[in-house]
Amino acid sequence: MFDVILTACSFFVCIILGYMSKKMKLVSGDGNFIGNIVMTFTLPCALIVGFNGATFSYWMIIALLIGLVTNIIAMFFGKYITGHKQTREAQASYILNCSGFSIGNLAIPFCLTFLPSTAIGYLAMFDIGNSIICLGGSAAYASSVLDASNKTDTKAIIKRLLSAIPVDTYFVLLLLSIFHITLPKTFITLISPVASANMFLMMFMVGLQLEFVIDKAFSKGMFKIFVSRLFLSLVFTGLFMILPLDPLLKKTLIIAVFAPIAGATIIFATELKAQEKLCAMMSSLTMIFSLFVYVLLMIILV
C-alpha cells in the first residue's frame, strides 16, 4: 500500500509543478502546446509500449460497448435532470457535462502504472466507445436541443473521431492484437523514452489546466452536475461488480467511469455557446476529484 501511495504522490508532485509553473508564468498559455505533444507523440507511444503483445479477447468488444452505452445513458440523464423549465443553453450544457470521460489525462497513466498491460487494451476499447459520444455524439444531441432544425452530421463525427491520433492508435493496436502481431523489441526500445515522458507531461498538463476560481452564478449548476456524475459513476460501478465480467475488466471499467470530464466538452460548449464557463469550471472540479478517487481506488483495487 505504501508503494501505491508513494507513486500517487509522485503524480501530485508533477501536477503541483505544472500549476506553480503557470502561476509563476514559467509556462505561457493553458497547456495547449504540451497537450499537442502528449496527444501526438507521448500518449500514442505509451499506449503502444503498454499494449504491445496483448492478446485479443471478446472482453475488449464488451469494453467498447460499455464505453458507448454508459455515455449514452449519461447523455440522456443530463437532459433529464435539467427539466423543461431550464433554458435550452442549460439543457445543452448538462448534456455535454454529464457525458464524456477524459481517459487520456488520468485513467491511462494510472492504469499503465498500477495494472497489467491487458488493462490498457480494455481501457482503449472503452475509450473508443466513449469517444464516439464525447467527440461528436453529445455535441450533436446538444445541438438538436438548442435548435430542433439542426441535423446530426454523422460524417463530421466520424471525421473528428478518426482525426484523433490516440483513437487511431487504439484501432491499430486492436488490429495487431486480433491478428496476433507483436511489434519488434527494437521498435519498442526506440519509442520507450518518448513513452516514459508521457506520465510527467500528462500530469504537468493537468496542473496547467487547473483553475480554482468559481463563478457563483454557476455554483448551483456545478453542484447538480457533479452530484449527477458521481451518482452515475457509483451506479455503473455497482453494475460492473455484479455483472459476470473479467475481474481485471471490472477494475478497469471502474477507473474509467470515475474519469474527469472530457476535454472536448469545453470545445463543444464554446462552439454551441452552451455555458462554456460552467464547462471549464466543471473540468477543473472533476479533475481534482478524480485524482483523489484514483488514489483511493488504487489502494483498494491493486
Structural overview:
This protein has 302 residues and is an all-alpha fold. The chain is 79% helix and 0% strand. It contains 13 helices and no strands. Helix 1 (2-23) runs antiparallel to helix 13. The longest helix has 30 residues, at 117-146.
Q: What descriptors fit this protein?
A:
302 residues; mainly alpha
**Strand tally, please?**
0
Please compute the radius of gyration using only Cα atoms: 19 Å
Uncertain runs are none
Encode the helix/strand succession as letters. Answer: HHHHHHHHHHHHH
Content of β-strand: under 5%
Determine the fraction of residues in helical runs and give it as a percent range. over 70%
Briefly say what this structure is.
The protein has 302 residues and is mainly α.
Produce the secondary structure layout.
Elements: H1 2-23, H2 32-51, H3 58-82, H4 88-98, H5 103-114, H6 117-146, H7 154-162, H8 165-178, H9 185-209, H10 219-242, H11 247-257, H12 264-272, H13 276-301
Helix pairs in contact: 1-9, 1-13, 2-8, 2-9, 3-4, 3-6, 3-10, 4-6, 4-12, 5-6, 5-9, 5-13, 6-7, 6-8, 6-11, 6-12, 10-11, 10-13, 12-13
